[in-house]
Amino acid sequence: MPIPPIRGSMAGRRRAAVIAAVVTFSTVLTGPDLAAADGTPTPSVPALKLDWEPCVQGSPFDCATAKVPLDYLKPGGRTIDLAVIRRQATGPGRRIGTLFFNPGGPGGPGGPGTVQMPQNYESFPREMRERFDVVSWDPRGIGNSTAVNCFASPQEAAAWNARKPAGFPVGDKERAAYIAAYKDLARRCEQRDPELLRHVSTTDTARDLDRLRQAVGDPQLTYLGDSYGSILGATYANLFPGKVRAMALDSNIDPQAWTNHASDEDPRLTTFLRMGSDRTAAATLDKFLALCGSTTSSRCAFSAGSPKATRDKFDQLMRRLREHAVGVWTYGRTVGDTVNSLYNVHPGWTDLAGRLQELWQGRAPEPATFPPPPPVPNPNPYLGDEQGGAVLCGDSPNPRDPGVYHALEEASATRAGDAGRFWTWASEGCAAWPVAANRYRGPWNKPTAHPVLVIGTVYDPSTPYQGAQAMVKELASARLLTHDGYGHTTLVNPSSCIKNYESRYFIDGTLPPVGATCRPDTPPFAAAKPGGGIATGGGAMAGIVS
């Protein structure tokens, strides 16, 4: 059924009335009667007000700060700040409402929306920019919001970071240093602000999102969530099912993998191994090498003239790096850079091929470059490993015994090669991390006021296509849209076909036909105009679910 515009929307009233018999919703903007993850009702929270002003002089983006309770069960207690950003709808008189956007990473779950939304704003479909204010925010614990920061100074953070190997550890000595570094990080964070650590869960952020929805005056939520933003969206949809106007989830995390099937047992696998990140990264890397080998070295610098020869060349390079680094480019760092560089096809794949070729020739390449800073007050906030880690580790179970990670690495490497080693160690920092106070672990099938659009990419180096299929099965009402392409999220790996379906869904609720499949606008290694992208890369827990 088409979704009416937000203005005066009565959409889903009859269906929401049925749901309300089971789940308690907010009925007034001044006091949401939220339910805690365990079903305990939370006290009323005062209405949120956003005082918008230009982010910086001459900027087309507006900024505001939202004050929200640290603990929604104690609304009169400590408050924290959320940094919020808005770009107003560009079509005068045609505005429908507000589209909330969570970009995922980098730096793990919950990247800084105040940076990534303006960096990628032009990638949103034109009609969506005309009809919606686009709003994003730095989730609690991240970036310019009240942030998890476990160091007294940047110098102290840099010294800690230098103690551990880049990418992932290789050999007994590096493994011991890596484990010790993350154990020390967890200790520092516990000492610095233990209360904040326990209240940066996805449940807490979903409640923040509902407060922001109320603050902009929308009776129901319109939302786009990428990667980690998919699990945030699924959590919101099940905490506030009657408030879903339109929700698109792109590059999806399987909710059962995220929660370890809501089990209280110590998990056998890490979050990313349960998700299948190792296998999907290996498949994407194999596709990168095959396509590279199918073209000339003028299009893909690492090409050896055929897919097989290019795969063999990559394997040989990895063996060489395991024996001898090229400058700072160790085997672990190179594999980490390779996986992260597969996220954004243009220009990421071409640039990656250039760095691999330089390493092949024995030269240390320059690191990947980041997009230019957007016109916001602080375009380069601190984004240490502990920020994404606080969300991931507090929310999603990982093995508590550091000693099991090496065996898990070897098992993953047998099925996923080099990428398996990277993804195994990506969440070792969770071994000593405290659990969040309020985690949502299901159910995931509460009937929403309107169906959800789920988008999955076939060759995604982080969130496998199977995650999108699983999300559709878990949600009460969802439609799968397949991107038969490459990279992580369709926002930065454009397909006009995806954008057209997405626009129609957000504007009037029209879902794609069952089985709809789209292809990318420009294949890898073609003469493409480089697009803006979400920066990825960094430490062990950086560039993970981004």
Brief descriptors of the model:
546 residues, alpha/beta, ten-stranded mixed β-sheet, 18 helices, 38% helix, disordered C terminus
Please write out the topology.
Elements: H1 13-20, E1 53-54, E2 62-69, E3 79-87, E4 97-102, H2 113-120, H3 126-131, E5 132-137, H4 154-162, H5 172-192, H6 194-197, H7 202-215, E6 221-226, H8 228-239, E7 244-250, H9 255-259, H10 271-275, H11 277-293, H12 307-323, H13 331-341, H14 348-360, H15 385-395, H16 405-425, E8 452-459, H17 465-474, E9 478-486, H18 496-508, E10 517-518
Parallel strand pairs: 4-5, 4-6, 6-7, 7-8, 8-9, 9-10
Antiparallel strand pairs: 1-2, 2-3, 3-5
Could you characterize the architecture of this molecule?
There is one protein chain. By secondary structure, the protein is of the alpha/beta class. The chain has helices at residues 13-20, 113-120, 126-131, 154-162, 172-192, 194-197, 202-215, 228-239, 255-259, 271-275, 277-293, 307-323, 331-341, 348-360, 385-395, 405-425, 465-474, 496-508, and strands at residues 53-54, 62-69, 79-87, 97-102, 132-137, 221-226, 244-250, 452-459, 478-486, 517-518. It has a 10-stranded mixed beta sheet, sandwiched between helices. Helix 7 (202-215) packs across helix 8, helix 11 packs across helix 12 (307-323) and helix 13 packs antiparallel against helix 14.
